[in-house]
Design a protein that fits this description.
Layout: E1 6-7, H1 12-20, H2 22-30, H3 39-42, H4 44-56, E2 57-58, H5 60-67
Parallel strand pairs: 1-2
Region (Disordered): 1-20
Organism: Sporosarcina contaminans
Protein name: Phage protein
């Protein structure tokens, strides 16, 4: 598995779809959410990948927010 390093390329389409997907709505409305930090229980492979990805890349919007804070 190859992990990206550096700045993440922003995608408005992905930002919107992540918050409005049917799967997300079903999980949230039925109360099937896992407690924060329990991602390793639900999907350990995805948890490990995301942990590395989030440490090796940065978001341009978070960077701008930090500068103008």
């Amino acid at each position: 598995m190859k992990v990206k390093v550096g700045m993440r390329k922003p995608s408005l389409k992905r930002r919107v779809s992540a918050r409005t997907s049917i799967k997300r709505q079903v999980v949230h409305r039925t109360g099937l959410k896992m407690p924060r930090g329990y991602g390793w229980v639900r999907n350990p492979k995805k948890y490990a990948y995301n942990k590395v990805y989030n440490r090796t890349t940065f978001d341009i919007f978070a960077l701008i927010k930090k500068i103008f804070k």
